[in-house]
């Protein structure tokens, strides 16, 4: 199933159109008397197909456009949006934003990011890889993926289906400081979920591969086989007596722990005093060997960017160094609320690299007389104010350094601050399918509640 590069790549022409639209909106805002204004224009195209039990279920093609404008009259702010690029619609959208701003209360923290912080080096990071994938080719990939998984073992009796999706996104951000920045990226995803066993003994699991370029996606047969292996491994699960033990979060699950940390040090949680990590800069929250580094310039990174959602120049920086909190995650609004400066994270963090001190999952299991490997989490039992953590889980019991049997119907519980401090190892076998790049994480002690 060879992919073909697009014979005609019109992305630069489309970006030019978005830039012209952005400039028109800024012009209209100036004419309406706004002291500052900012505009975001985006456009996306995509194809998604789904199959199940060898039959095509869905074929969807989408094309979307979004235009948002925010105006400021001093410290008063108003926003409006549209998907219509006709001039009369742009005029009406700006008028609506201005009307909202005139009737809102002043907010001392409102306004654009400071002009001197705007990005000037507007590089790309190898995130644009358009390829021609027809609906027939997408269906073929999904069918091959599911077929490979179902053929693995007679115990694979059912399927939740397989899917293939491709898409491309273009975006332009501009503001009245004179900043104009454009971004473009492509993405491709192939996934499969299979069901092993029969009746009440059925178990479901799956696998997926995602990349910014089509040639970066794993082949269909490999994805299907991994999905089958994971479903088969979960047959005949047990529960376990409630106890405390080490817990290893598999790489694809471990990134949720890093995500909880990022949420706890993000501006909105901090200025509302709704985080257990308020006033934590300079404090040791993780072990001394542990670090998290942000790299917005990673080639083919899922969140690589030269500027953030406010046009501020991004930069490489440590969030955690030697276990110590180096800075919060802030845009300009939250930074002003806290009396600090933006960290170029309006719109979120970029690529995060978590430091490692272990070879891989197998080496982390070695020497564990009894521990839990978590491969699935359920529920949202996270309290960011207190740090309390309680989630349903499934995975495998580790005994004498080896996987012993699958488990489900359990809950794992602790407190995020204590869990961060109790991290003993991070494996070097990272899951590359996310902007949070981490391997499996071993937490030395948690409560595992079962029977």
Describe the SSE topology.
Blueprint: E1 4-5, H1 11-31, E2 36-52, E3 55-73, E4 76-82, H2 87-102, E5 131-132, H3 135-150, E6 156-175, E7 180-196, E8 203-211, H4 220-233, E9 243-249, H5 251-264, H6 267-271, E10 292-294, E11 317-321, E12 324-325, H7 332-338, E13 352-354, H8 361-365, E14 370-378, E15 388-399, E16 402-415, H9 416-421, E17 423-426, E18 436-437, E19 441-449
Parallel strand pairs: 9-14, 13-18
Antiparallel strand pairs: 1-5, 2-3, 2-6, 3-4, 6-7, 7-8, 9-19, 10-11, 10-13, 11-12, 14-15, 15-16, 16-19, 17-19
Helix pairs in contact: 1-2, 3-4
Domain Metalloprotease TldD/E C-terminal: 242-450
Pfam families: PmbA_TldD_1st, PmbA_TldD_2nd, PmbA_TldD_3rd
Organism: Solilutibacter tolerans
Task: Give a short overview.
This protein has 451 residues and is α+β, with helices and mostly antiparallel strands. It contains nine helices and 19 strands.
Describe, in plain words, how this protein is organized in 3D.
This protein has 451 residues and is of the alpha+beta class. The protein has two domains: 4-232, PmbA/TldD fold (2-Layer Sandwich), CATH 3.30.2290.10; 237-451, no CATH class. The chain has nine helices and 19 strands. It has helices at residues 11-31, 87-102, 135-150, 220-233, 251-264, 267-271, 332-338, 361-365, 416-421, and strands at 4-5, 36-52, 55-73, 76-82, 131-132, 156-175, 180-196, 203-211, 243-249, 292-294, 317-321, 324-325, 352-354, 370-378, 388-399, 402-415, 423-426, 436-437, 441-449. The chain has a six-stranded antiparallel β-sheet. A five-stranded mixed barrel has the order 9-14-15-16-19. Strand 3 (55-73) and strand 4 (76-82) form a beta hairpin. Helix 1 (11-31) packs across helix 2 and helix 3 runs parallel beside helix 4 (220-233). The termini are far apart. The mean pLDDT is 96. Residues 129-235 form the Metalloprotease TldD/E central domain. One of its GO terms (biological process) is proteolysis. This is PmbA protein. It holds the Pfam family PmbA_TldD_1st. Residues 37-101 form the Metalloprotease TldD/E N-terminal domain.
């Amino acid at each position: 199933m060879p992919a073909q590069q697009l014979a005609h790549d019109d992305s630069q022409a489309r970006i030019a159109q978005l830039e012209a639209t952005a400039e028109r909106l800024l012009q209209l805002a100036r004419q309406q008397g706004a002291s500052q204004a900012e505009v975001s224009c985006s456009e996306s195209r995509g194809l998604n197909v789904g199959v199940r039990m060898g039959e095509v279920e869905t074929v969807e093609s989408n094309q979307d456009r979004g235009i948002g404008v925010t105006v400021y009259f001093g410290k008063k702010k108003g926003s409006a949006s549209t998907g219509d690029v006709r001039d009369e619609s742009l005029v009406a959208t700006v008028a609506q934003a201005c009307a909202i701003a005139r009737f809102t209360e002043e907010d001392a923290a409102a306004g654009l990011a400071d002009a001197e912080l705007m990005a000037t080096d507007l590089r790309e990071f190898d995130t644009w890889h358009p390829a021609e994938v027809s609906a027939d080719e997408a269906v073929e990939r999904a069918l091959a993926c599911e077929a490979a998984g179902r053929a693995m073992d007679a115990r694979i009796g059912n399927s939740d289906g397989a899917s293939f999706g491709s898409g491309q996104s273009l975006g332009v951000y501009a503001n009245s400081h004179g900043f104009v920045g454009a971004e473009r990226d492509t993405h491709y995803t192939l996934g499969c979920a299979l069901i092993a066993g029969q009746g009440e003994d059925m178990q479901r699991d799956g696998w997926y591969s995602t990349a910014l370029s089509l040639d970066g996606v794993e082949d269909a047969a490999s994805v299907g086989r991994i999905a089958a292996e994971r479903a088969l491994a979960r047959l005949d699960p047990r529960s376990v007596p409630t106890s405390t033990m080490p817990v290893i979060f598999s790489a694809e699950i471990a990134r949720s722990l890093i995500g909880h940390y990022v949420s706890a040090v993000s501006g909105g949680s901090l200025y509302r005093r709704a985080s257990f990590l308020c006033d934590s800069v300079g404090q040791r929250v993780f072990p001394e060997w542990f670090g998290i580094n942000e790299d917005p310039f990673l080639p083919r990174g899922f969140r690589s960017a030269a500027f953030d959602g406010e046009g501020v120049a991004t930069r490489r920086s440590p969030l955690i160094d030697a276990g110590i909190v180096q800075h919060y995650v802030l845009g300009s609004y939250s930074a002003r609320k806290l009396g600090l400066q933006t960290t170029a994270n309006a719109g979120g963090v970029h690529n995060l690299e978590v430091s490692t001190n272990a070879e891989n999952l197998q080496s982390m299991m070695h020497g564990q007389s009894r521990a839990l490997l978590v491969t699935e989490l359920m529920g949202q039992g996270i309290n960011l104010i207190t740090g309390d953590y309680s989630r349903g889980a499934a995975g495998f019991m580790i005994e004498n350094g080896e996987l012993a049997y699958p488990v489900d119907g359990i809950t794992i519980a602790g407190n995020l601050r204590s869990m961060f401090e109790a991290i003993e190892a991070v494996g070097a076998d990272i899951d590359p399918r996310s902007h949070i790049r981490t391997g499996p994480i071993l937490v030395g002690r948690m409560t595992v509640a079962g029977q």
